[in-house]
Amino acid sequence: MSKEQNQPQDSKERIGVYVCHCGSNIAGVVDVEDVAVWAKEELGDEGVVVSRDYKFMCSSLGQEMIENDIKEQGLSRVVVAACSPHLHEATFRTACERAGLNPYLSELVSIREQVSWVHTDKEKATEKAKAMIAGGVERVIENEPLEPLRVPIHPATLVVGGGIAGIQTALEIADAGYQVYLVEREPSIGGHMAQFDKTFPTLDCAACILTPKMVSVGEHPNIELLTWSEVERVEGYVGNFSVTVRKRPRYIDTELCTGCGICWEKCPKKVIDEVFEQGLGYRTAVYTPFPQAVPKYPVIDTESCIFFDNGKCKACEKLCPTGAIDFDQKEEILLLEVGNIIIATGFDTFDARRIPEYGYGRLANVFTSVEFERMCNAAGPTNGEVVLRDGVTKPEAVGIVHCVGSRDRNYNNYCSVICCMSSLKFAHLVKERTGAEVYNFYIDMRTAYKDYDEFYQRVMEEGVLFVRGRVAEITDATRNPGEEGKLVIQVEDTLAGRQRRIPVDMAILSVGLQPPSDTKEVAHRFGISCSASGWITEKHPKLDPVATMTEGIFIAGAIQGPKDIPTSVAQGAAAAARVLGRINMGEMYLEPIRATVDPEKCSGCRICNNLCPFGAIIFHEDLMVTEINHALCQGCGTCVAACPAGAISGTGFSNEQVLSQIEGLLAYSFPKDFELVEMVPA
Amino acid sequence: MSEQFEPVIIGFTCNWCSYRAADMAGTARIKYPPNIRLVRLMCSGRLDPTFVLKALSEGADGVLITGCHPGECHYLEQNYKALRRYRLLRKTIAQMGIEPERIKLVWASAAEGVQLAREITTFVEEIRALGPLRWPVRLAAIERQETAVAEEVAA
User: Fold this and answer.
1) Do B132 and A636 touch (CB under 8 A)?
2) Residue A325 in contact with residue A316, Cβ under 8 Å?
3) How confident is the model at residue A674 (pLDDT cuts 50, 70, 90)?
């Protein structure tokens, strides 16, 4: 059946087959002893000289069994029939290597995830296991010894996003002595945490715990801070990325600016600050987003600046004591060489206008959580006073609505993790600053982490009222006495078993978290992917939350999924540790799955040239042949499949390997006595 | 033969999405018919149409091609190339007299174990309805009939 028939007997490979019981995971459905015996008998002609079954092949004893057979029986190929290669391919490869056999001369055939766990008919499952092993045996004969590719790791790191996760990760890498480029789209680092007033459960002032870290970043000799900048393009591969960063013009010469603030104090043009103040306050055309901004240099918003509109004003330029205003400043394009990238681009919030029943944007005193944070902040638009939209009146009753846009099939199906705690925090702050009655409308109380539930109990003791039910409507259409001039929250109180209309003066919507609106484009730029709900996909949700499927690119913080500050910090530290480990090793080994063009066979048809998204395919005009750059090749094999001359070979997944596997799978898939009836047309 | 016809199907999966979906179906113990045997490739873009033809010529009754959803390919856009080849391949085998429905392309992301199992189950039934292809056996039967006819003519 295979090429062995054309070769003399003594050039046949010596193959060892190992069938794992995996306890009863496999053995409970597949007759593993029968399979092992069958492999020796049926596949002996193909070269199987040893065939064993064992309880747990991945155990030390299992691995030793393979190693001993390699040494004593002179095995040249190994096939293990067990679990998924994603679990133990490396284990058995390493075992082979220890015994002196090239690790790529082994195959792990999955008869657990692919057979015993998904089929119930034991006879058919056993037959399928045999066919899968035959496929593996035929394939492994075609395997070639390979060496992993060594790539050097550039010691610099790119961190994208200057929120708390990005700040943490940058500091850890920089403190270890390595260069970090921190790119942030806004004029200052700090992210959403800089907008908050207090953080749960400790009620620490957000700015007080954040700004020291921000200052460390600003002053760190190993961190090059690139704010008001964005990553334009990423090329290269792990250890060797070339990143193009567009540094937008601030129109402030940072060499001269002292951060004195005269420019934005005197700027005559005021606009509503939609970003940092969430539309509740004003800023000037030349501005820093908040007083503790890092870096301290302001930026000029060309859309609102009078000079950029009609050439007049220039008050800032006239008044700047160091002459730091530079209206002619141009954008800078920087090319950075880095070894690893950490993406920490955080989150956006759900747009509450999408739920018209809640009246946000229509009813004046319906606020979002972020607006309320700004209101509570002592440096915010109301100097920390909890007041209605008129800026003066204190509320007598406040309703806080949980799960706005979250846990909702109509909007975002997932739970946004932090809203219960922040809703409790708001309840506490309202109680602290006003004498108002406070209602929290919740579905479940999610207060799972350290000191969180104790905080919930404290808020309960402060006299906050809790109503279990998803709010149906917030309206100013009053009907009952006592509702005049109020907002009415219509809700089913599920614990009391009846509908309630609760009049309040102010409603706070705890809006859910969403990935930033351009996450898909950003992910594509870096060559990583997003999940269905838009958060960036981690390598493994349980075991590898900070890595991505692309080597050298890590994620940290909310961009991986909604999370609180301690978890974001932990992930930032985790990503930093991963990168530092890489930098410390100095080089990395990559899977040697690469494509190679045989220049003898290449006719220069160039069909393959357009197929590579990584730019690894180069055409040599002078020689009229194509060449593949092994460093850039990611091993997808598309060019291998496309070449009409078969001039491109793909190591690890060669044509010979796959075709042999198909032969093996099908050779044992049919009952021997199968007869086609009425197959031939009359 | 009163036994029900059991199709034999070869499935091609990509290492990053659909193979992980198959693994996920396994981890979640989702059941599907044992008629399919999966081959792992690094990417659906690796799928050489020759592989499909090989499978059919070695006796498979159907071939299922799977990969990452468009826009989610681990290698960025190679699944689009798989899609192009699939379309052309279907036309080609129709020209050879084989029902194009014997080849099917489905996308499955790494989290879609349930969906993949469902697609496999559906495809097995679709092929069952089409009946066996079993090319080597069919070819042998045709040859036998031709020989018989030739002998009859000679006699």
Assistant:
1) no
2) yes
3) low
Those residues with Cβ within 8 angstroms of residue B73's Cβ, 6 or more apart along the chain or in another chain: B16, B17, B43, B44, B45, B67, B79, B80
- Tell which of B5, B32, B78, B149 to mutate to test the A interface (max A CBs under 10 Å): B78
Identical fold at A150-244+334-345+517-588 and A249-330?
no
pLDDT band per the 50, 70, 90 thresholds, residue A6: very low
Element (H, E) at A50: strand A48-54
At A298, is the pLDDT very low, low, confident or very high (cuts 50, 70, 90)? very high
Whether B146 contacts chain A with CB within 8 A:
no
Query: Closest chain B residue to A672 measured between Cα atoms?
Result: B137
Q: What CATH fold (topology level) applies to the domain A249-330?
A: Alpha-Beta Plaits (3.30.70)
So where are chain A's domains?
15-148+660-667, 150-244+334-345+517-588, 249-330, 348-514, 595-650
- Continuous H helices in A179-338: 206-219, 262-266, 306-310, 315-319
Residue A236 CA to chain centroid, in angstroms? 19
The distance of A62 to chain B (nearest Cα, Å) reads 23
The answer to whether B128 faces chain A, any CB pair under 8 Å, is no
Q: What is the pTM of this model?
A: 0.83
A252-293 pLDDT, tens digit each? 999 999 999 999 999 999 999 999 999 999 999 999 999 999
Third-level CATH fold of A150-244+334-345+517-588: FAD/NAD(P)-binding domain (3.50.50)
> Is A593 at the interface with chain B, CB within 8 A?
yes
- Contact residues, chain A, for B45 at CB < 8 Å: 611, 636-638, 641
Please name the residue of chain A whose CA is at the shortest distance from the CA of residue B28. A117
The bridge status of strand A553-555 relative to strand A340-343 is parallel
If one counts every other C-beta atom within 10 angstroms of the C-beta of residue A435, the result is 9
pLDDT tens string B76-121 = 788 899 999 999 999 999 998 899 999 999 999 888 899 999 999 9
Buried b (16+ CB within 10 A) or exposed e, A196-210: bbbbbbeeeebbeeb
A447 φ/ψ angles, rounded to the nearest 5 degrees = -130, 65
Residue B147 has pLDDT above 50, yes or no: yes
Q: Does A529 touch chain B (CB under 8 A)?
A: yes
**B39-73 confidence digits (pLDDT tens):** 999 999 999 999 999 999 999 999 999 998 887 78
Residues A514, A512: Cα–Cα separation, whole Å: 7
Residue in B with minimal Cα distance to A643: B48
Q: Which CATH class is domain A15-148+660-667?
A: alpha beta
Q: Which two tokens stand for residue A108?
A: 């792990």
CATH homologous superfamily of domain A348-514?
A: FAD/NAD(P)-binding domain (3.50.50.60)
> Domains (ranges, CATH) in chain B?
9-154 (3.40.50)
**Which fold, A595-650?**
Alpha-Beta Plaits (3.30.70)
Provide, as residue numbers in chain A, all residues whose Cβ is less than 8 Å from the Cβ of B16. Answer: 549
CB contact under 8 A, A637 and B46: yes
Query: Measured at the alpha carbon of residue A545, what is the angle toward residues B18 and A419, in degrees to the nearest 5?
Result: 110
Q: Which residues contact A486 (CB under 8 A, 6 or more apart)?
A: A397, A476, A478, A503, A504, A505
ipTM of this complex > 0.90?
A: yes
Give the C-alpha separation, A537 to A523, whole Å: 10
| Residue A110 at interface with chain B, using a CB cutoff of 8 Å | yes
Distance from CA of B66 to the nearest CA of A (A): 15
Quote the percentage of chain A above a pLDDT of 90. 86
pLDDT of residue A681: 43
Interface touch A119/B32, C-beta < 8 Å: yes
